[in-house]
Amino acid sequence: DQQVKQNSPSLSVQEGRISILNCDYTNSMFDYFLWYKKYPAEGPTFLISISSIKDKNEDGRFTVFLNKSAKHLSLHIVPSQPGDSAVYFCAARLTDSWGKLQFGAGTQVVVTP
Amino acid sequence: GAVVSQHPSWVICKSGTSVKIECRSLDFQATTMFWYRQFPKQSLMLMATSNEGSKATYEQGVEKDKFLINHASLTLSTLTVTSAHPEDSSFYICSARGRQDYEQYFGPGTRLTVT
Questions:
Q1: Which of residues 22-41 of A touch B (CB under 8 A)?
Q2: Which one of A28, A37, A65, B2 has the largest count of C-beta atoms within 10 Å of its C-beta?
Q3: What is the DSSP letter of B59?
Q4: From edge to edge, which strands make up the β-sheet containing B19-25?
Q5: Is the pLDDT reported for residue B89 higher than 80?
Q6: Cα-to-chain-centroid distance, residue B56
Q7: From CA A24, how far away is CA A81, in angstroms rounded?
Q8: Rounded mean pLDDT of chain A?
Q9: B75 has a pLDDT exceeding 80
Q10: Which helix (H) or strand (E) holds A21?
Q11: B95 in contact with chain A, both atoms CB, cutoff 8 A
């Protein structure tokens, strides 16, 4: 039962432009949402998170938007840089679950010059 | 801060042998650690949740007698793959819950190949 979904397996964007990654979820009991970046053969790196009581969080080039009524969140990266090329995972945390995260399938981002 | 290390980074073993993977939180105390495995081009699959000083909680479908988890201290958790088989070959990643309980920091992963 996939409760966190990233429907776009890949995204190609030009350097300097905005990258928009989308994530949908089905469980209304998620209380935190996180985005991770992962390079091959490495562990995921935490990027940014958002509480379910907020609708926007910004950190440098990264902004996460949460639309709770639509059960949808997105990650905006602007401007995109070649070093941003990686797989991005959306993750959601269930309330009272020792912090267990459920991950989406990931979106491969390729930033072209 | 919030660095998690794993050792070894890669290991090759023969079928039937056991392999131990260590996960350490280097600059913070982690009461809860998690173990994941990732198959090529797939998402991270949570295997178990490990709380310091207590037995690990395994996800459905994960054999607890095959994947032994020990969380002996606030900075160390180990995963032992017992009687390894080729189908256990995978990328194993640990994570540790940080000071803010929604944060989770990941180790660099361990590539296990069973021949």
A1: 31-32, 34, 36, 41
A2: A37
A3: P
A4: B4-7, B19-25, B76-81, B67-73
A5: yes
A6: 11
A7: 25
A8: 94
A9: yes
A10: strand A19-25
A11: yes
Please report the residues numbered 30 through 69 in chain B whose beta carbons come closer than 8 angstroms to any beta carbon of chain A.
Answer: 32, 34, 42-44, 46, 49, 51, 57
B86 vs A56: CA distance, rounded Å: 45
Q: What token pair was written down for A82?
A: 């070649």
Of B51, B57, B105, the CB nearest to A46: B105
Q: What pLDDT was estimated at residue A10? A: 95
Phi-psi region of B29 (alpha: psi -120 to 50; beta: other; left: phi over 0): beta
B29-44 CB burial, b ≥16 within 10 A, e <16: ebbbbbbbbbeeeebb
Q: How is residue A71 written in tokens?
A: 């059960």
Q: With 80 as the cut, is the pLDDT of residue B1 above it?
A: no
Please indicate if any CB of chain B lies within 8 Å of the CB of A100. yes
Q: Please give the C-alpha separations between residue A56 and each of A86, A111, B103, in angstroms, as whole numbers.
A: 23, 24, 17
Q: What is the CA radius of gyration of chain B?
A: 13
Q: Is A12 on the interface with B (CB under 8 A)?
A: no
Note whether B13 and B66 are within 8 A (CB): no
Q: In whole angstroms, what is the distance from residue A32 CA to residue A103 CA?
A: 12
pLDDT at B100: 64
CB–CB of B44 and A41 under 8 A?
no
A52 at the B interface (CB within 8 A)? no
The answer to whether the beta carbons of residues B63 and B47 sit under 8 Å apart is no
